[in-house]
Structure formats: structure tokens, C-alpha cells
Design a protein that fits this description.
The structure holds 2 protein chains of 2 kinds.
Chain A: E1 5-7, E2 10-13, E3 19-24, E4 31-38, E5 42-50, E6 53-57, E7 64-68, E8 74-78, E9 87-94, E10 96-97, E11 100-101, E12 105-106, E13 110-114
Parallel strand pairs in A: 2-13
Antiparallel strand pairs in A: 1-3, 3-8, 4-5, 4-9, 5-6, 7-8, 9-12, 9-13, 10-11
Chain B: E1 4-7, E2 10-14, E3 19-25, E4 30-38, E5 44-51, E6 56-59, E7 62-67, E8 72-77, E9 86-94, E10 102-104, E11 108-113
Parallel strand pairs in B: 2-11
Antiparallel strand pairs in B: 1-3, 3-8, 4-5, 4-9, 6-7, 7-8, 9-10, 9-11
The chains are: A mainly beta, B mainly beta.
Chain lengths: 115, 114
């Protein structure tokens, strides 16, 4: 079974631009979560999508948004990039039972550098 | 608000040594606790998942325990090897919040010296 895939793996953008990151979950998984990892803040939860609906959201500004498609693939968008958005963005997928999710499986991440 | 703390922040041991990594959480109302490994610049690899109703889980040389009443989990690594060198993260899924939100600790950076 293929794991979680993320594209692109590396990205360099300029302050003020916008960026879209993509995540394909493990086949059969309907929950996709996004996390931001930085040296100063560690791993922080951005949001989760389940069956094309945002089920949970972290404390990030509205510049961070996402969506999920009917095949469970998810995209994350960051508008008006700031230098502080430079980070490793990780996507995780899991199967779900009711309101909760089972074991989380993470992708390799997208390394975003904002200059 | 759930807070997760990992001690120590860094650990260096000689090959073959048994070691214990510690994780504590402030809110005992958790659904599960998961241990991950992260190699430099890479994603997270799931090691063990402990449901709130369980006390421990084992996989090969790894054993994780969970004590909800005291808000603690430990990851025991037996007969450590240089290939075990990585950052180990624990993460708790809170019961109060539906979905997959995990709260992570800062991690323990482990170095196993040959």
C-alpha cells in the first residue's frame, strides 16, 4: 500500500506570493490533517479535513486555508506569504471511527522557504 | 489546553544501552497517544500507538507505556543501535476535540554512538 505523498517536496517563494501544497492520503483514508513544523514552535496543527469538510482548525491566520476533494486528496494554500511561513509542512492521513481517528501516518513533507 | 512535554531534550548513549524517553501531558482526557520518529529533514514515522484503554504496546525492541492518571508515557528502547539515532516525538489526541488533532511534544534528540 502506498504511503502518504506530498508535492512538491521543496519550494522557494517570495514574500507576498501565494503557494499551494498537495497531499495524497493512503488509499481508503478519509481524514487528512496538516501541520507546520518550525525550529521555534515545533509541530503545530493547522487543520483537518474529513469527507471534504473541515472538521478541526488550529490557531493560524486566515491566510492559511485548505480543501479536500472527493478522492480524499487535499490541498493547502497560503496567501500573502511572510518570512515566518518558512517551515516544513507535513500532511497526515488516518482512517476514522465516528468523530475520532486512528493512527496517523505522515508524508515526507514540503519544505517551504520564503525569501 | 493540552500541553505535552518531553524529557530529556537530548540524549547521547553508547551502542547496546537500554534507554527510556519520557513524555508528560497535562490533560488526562486523551483518546490515544502516539510515538513517532523523525530523521533530519524528513517526515514522521509512526512507531507505536496506545489507546487510552491500554497500558502498553510493544513492537520489536520498542515498548511504550501509558499512565493516564499521572499524565505520563514512556518509550523504552532496548539494545540501542546507531540506526536508532533520530528525534523521537510523542503526541496526544485529546478526547474533548473530535477529529485527528495531535498535540506534540518538542521531542527528544537521540544519538547512539557506535
Amino acid at each position: 500500500k502506498a504511503g502518504v505523498t506530498q508535492t512538491p517536496r521543496y519550494l522557494i517563494k517570495t514574500r507576498g506570493q501565494q503557494v499551494t501544497l498537495s497531499c495524497s492520503p493512503i488509499s481508503g483514508h478519509r481524514s487528512v490533517s496538516w501541520y507546520q513544523q518550525t525550529p521555534g514552535q515545533g509541530l503545530q496543527f493547522l487543520f483537518e479535513y474529513f469527507s471534504e469538510t473541515q472538521r478541526n482548525k488550529g490557531n493560524f491566520p486566515g491566510r492559511f486555508s485548505g480543501r479536500q476533494f472527493s478522492n480524499s486528496r487535499s490541498e493547502m494554500n497560503v496567501s500573502t506569504l511572510e518570512l515566518g511561513d518558512s517551515a516544513l509542512y507535513l500532511c497526515a492521513s488516518s482512517s476514522s471511527r465516528g468523530s475520532f481517528s486512528y493512527e496517523q501516518y505522515f508524508g515526507p513533507g514540503t519544505r517551504l522557504t520564503v525569501t | 489546553k493540552q500541553e505535552v512535554t518531553q524529557i530529556p531534550a537530548a540524549l547521547s548513549v553508547p551502542e547496546g544501552e537500554n534507554l527510556v524517553l519520557n513524555c508528560s501531558f497535562t490533560d488526562s482526557a486523551i483518546y490515544n497517544l502516539q510515538w513517532f520518529r523523525q530523521d533530519p529533514g524528513k517526515g514522521l514515522t509512526s512507531l507505536l500507538l496506545i489507546q487510552s484503554s491500554q497500558r502498553e504496546q510493544t513492537s520489536g525492541r520498542l515498548n511504550a507505556s501509558l499512565d493516564k492518571s499521572s499524565g505520563r508515557s514512556t518509550l523504552y528502547i532496548a539494545a540501542s543501535q546507531p540506526g536508532d539515532s533520530a528525534t523521537y516525538l510523542c503526541a496526544a489526541q485529546a478526547l474533548e476535540t473530535s477529529g485527528s488533532r495531535l498535540t506534540f511534544g518538542e521531542g527528544t534528540q537521540l544519538t547512539v554512538n557506535p
